Structure formats: C-alpha cells, structure tokens
Amino acid sequence: METRFEIRNSEFLLIKLDHPERLDEMGALRVLAWKDEQGISQDFFSHKAWLDDEDLLAHHWVILHNKTIVAAARMTFHTDYKSVPHADLFDGSILEGFGNGPYASLNRLVVAPEYRGNGFSTLLDEARIQYAAILGARLIIAQPVASRIKPLEDLGFFYLGKIRPLYQMPERQIYFMIKELGV
C-alpha cells in the first residue's frame, strides 16, 4: 500500500509499514512534534521517544520525504471496547446506541511541525479508515485534540464528548469521536 504525491515540487510517499518497522523513528517524531505544545507533561516528553505496548500490535502508516518520516499514525483493532487505548478515560456505555465492535482505534497521529498544513493528517486518516473497513471493523474510535474535531467530522465521525486528560498531556483536553462503517 503506497501512494506517491507532490506538494510544492517536493515528492512525498504515504506507505503502510510492515510490522513492526521504524518504530523508534515514529516514537522520536511523536516527542519532537508534541514536546513544545501547551498542556503536555514536560517530564514525559523529555524522553527520546513515545512508544508503548500497543505499538507492537498496531498497524502503522507514515509519510516520507527524502526517506525521512515527516508524519505518522497508527491504528489498533479490538473485539471489545475495554481493550481500546484509554478506554478507561471515557464512559463506554455511551456506545450502546452504536452496537458492538469489532473496533478500530485511530491514535498517535503526528506531523512534524515544519510539515503541518499540507493535509497529511487527512491522508493518514483516509488510509486508516479504508484499511479498517477492509479488515471488517464495524466502528472506528478517535480520541483527538480540539483542532482535529472538524476534520474528523468531515470524514463522517460523530462527536460524543470529552474524555479525561491523558497523563502525557494533563492540561490538554482530549475528545471522543466515533464513525460507523457499513458491515
């Protein structure tokens, strides 16, 4: 799964990585992209990389420029809501009106600061949504920051409310959204 595209005479490549590949680079990009944002834990983002156990189980997409990762995102799959990352931060009973999984969870979307504003987030979202449908997910869960709510609504997600802050971002509000896929 590979897509080449051009922005301002520069070539980029969107690819789904073989599993697991280039995790250290993605983890380092997460820290680079988030460390100067407001509301984050300076202690947590003083580490070299932001990686967790889900990274080993997840599917990953990257956008490359000159073979360097400039944007990345992951998606995890779950048979029940309780296993979705950060499920404990939101009341899962609100999902009852949507039925049961399987669930896909969009998480860890990151774009290097100097590459923001090029539509990379949308490209990564579309690739993950398409893949979730192929693998038979019934619902896709997203836990975005405020600036990502509108773009996700444009892709068919419904806003369901706020979740409690992540410990990595204790002063940054995170939201809960869901998208139903045709089964």
TrEMBL record:
InterPro entries recorded: Acyl_CoA_acyltransferase (IPR016181), GNAT_dom (IPR000182)
Domain N-acetyltransferase stretches: 13-182
Highest taxon listed in the record's lineage: Bacteria
Protein's name in the database: GNAT family N-acetyltransferase
Organism ancestry: Bacteria, Pseudomonadati, Bacteroidota, Cytophagia, Cytophagales
